[in-house]
Amino acid sequence: MNVLSAKPVFIGDTTLRDGEQTAGVVFSAKEKIAIAKKLDAMGVHELECGIPAMGKEERSTIRALVDLGLSARLITWNRALIPDIEASISCGITAVDISLCVSDIMIESKINKSREWVKEQLRRALGFAKSRGLYVCVGGEDASRADLSFLGELMQIAAASGADRFRFCDTLGILDPFTMQEKVAALTAAVPQLDVEVHAHNDLGLATANALAGFRGGASYISTTVNGLGERAGNAALEEVVMALKVACGIDVGIDTRRLAAISRLVGKASNRGVPAWKAVVGERVFSHESGVHTDGVLKNPANYEVFPPEEVGLSRHIVAGKHSGTNGIVECYRQIGIPLSIEEAQKLMARVRSASQLIKGPLQPQDLIRLHETLTLAAA
Ligand SMILES: CC(=O)SCCNC(=O)CCNC(=O)[C@H](O)C(C)(C)COP(=O)(O)OP(=O)(O)OC[C@H]1O[C@@H](n2cnc3c(N)ncnc32)[C@H](O)[C@@H]1OP(=O)(O)O
Ligand SMILES: O=C(O)CCC(=O)C(=O)O
């Protein structure tokens, strides 16, 4: 049992906010409702569901999501501006993320303000939200490039003004997991009274690793999106985070993992961003075996080459006949189409399977296997 398993961990999924911010992606209200219902049914703890400041249409979708009465907490994204928070309240929302730029580069060259302004605006916006009884997460945009002592100061202000948690954002996806763990650990040690969320982007392909590193550093909330959708290279993927916590860290976050493939397909379709066949955890072919040594091992015991059974995430196993097949794999492929083979027959077929696969540059389909089997029978006649 991993030592971390005693620590509570909550998944805050932002497919409907950061996921939809993927350039060119739009979810209809119907799609947002379908995605939210499925995420809720599988046990995701919190859904960041949109940005009320965007306008009437977005607010009407958020209201419809509120009306669903889901078990998951619904939270909206807001700039540290009172009208943004008022727009959230008008949707019936009871939890808000109040976002502030916290790195000097963004404070100076994006919002054209000062650290003092950020501190003051935090007090003002947070004070307003708390006076309206809202659950508040303070979002530290670009926290990974911010001065750590300034972050600590902001977190102290946030805690003293009643914030419920602080979101540490690696907005540009620049951290390595070791640095992520160190930074989050320093902040959770400095301000232990405030829950921390880790929000990791995937610009260097490290989002999932960084999400887990943030958790190891003391974060109790992990921000995810289905399929890792999100700004630029995306966010830490829900399916990767949940399964990595389960398999690599021994932590069950209470999410029904058997529904991961289905939610992945739903979001893939709604976002018009197909899921690559080799996508970690949920790709259609991540439980496909062709290579002789691997297939033989899997047929004897799937645990030889599968980190968890495919059914655990709603997928199934495929044994494929192709260029790298061995005898035992070929016997299995023929067995699956109702043709029992002896080892000698499989050995004879192996060279033909290899050549055919090289010719078509891919795996053999049942009709190809039947045709090759006929050539074998003819040769024997
Ligand atoms: C890292 C992230 O993913 S943060 C989430 C970002 N998501 C989005 O931007 C998607 C939705 N956004 C929108 O619909 C629009 O940008 C809106 C409604 C939020 C704002 O629209 P506009 O008022 O037209 O402003 P515009 O988008 O051009 O510029 C952003 C403004 O917000 C300000 N701003 C940015 N972040 C913050 C913040 N955390 N707190 C306060 N103000 C902020 C900027 O300084 C800029 O204001 P300025 O024009 O006075 O300099
Ligand atoms: O400020 C926040 O709460 C989140 C912003 C965000 O999505 C990011 O910084 O990547």
TrEMBL record:
<dbReference type="Pfam" id="PF00682">
    <property type="entry name" value="HMGL-like"/>
</dbReference>
<dbReference type="InterPro" id="IPR000891">
    <property type="entry name" value="PYR_CT"/>
</dbReference>
<dbReference type="InterPro" id="IPR002034">
    <property type="entry name" value="AIPM/Hcit_synth_CS"/>
</dbReference>
<dbReference type="InterPro" id="IPR054691">
    <property type="entry name" value="LeuA/HCS_post-cat"/>
</dbReference>
<feature type="domain" description="Pyruvate carboxyltransferase">
    <location>
        <begin position="9"/>
        <end position="261"/>
    </location>
</feature>
<dbReference type="InterPro" id="IPR013477">
    <property type="entry name" value="NifV/FrbC"/>
</dbReference>
<keyword id="KW-0808">Transferase</keyword>
<dbReference type="InterPro" id="IPR013785">
    <property type="entry name" value="Aldolase_TIM"/>
</dbReference>
<keyword id="KW-0535">Nitrogen fixation</keyword>
<dbReference type="Pfam" id="PF22617">
    <property type="entry name" value="HCS_D2"/>
</dbReference>
<comment type="similarity">
    <text>Belongs to the alpha-IPM synthase/homocitrate synthase family.</text>
</comment>
<comment type="function">
    <text>This protein is a Fe-Mo-cofactor biosynthetic component.</text>
</comment>
<protein>
    <recommendedName>
        <fullName>Homocitrate synthase</fullName>
        <ecNumber>2.3.3.14</ecNumber>
    </recommendedName>
</protein>
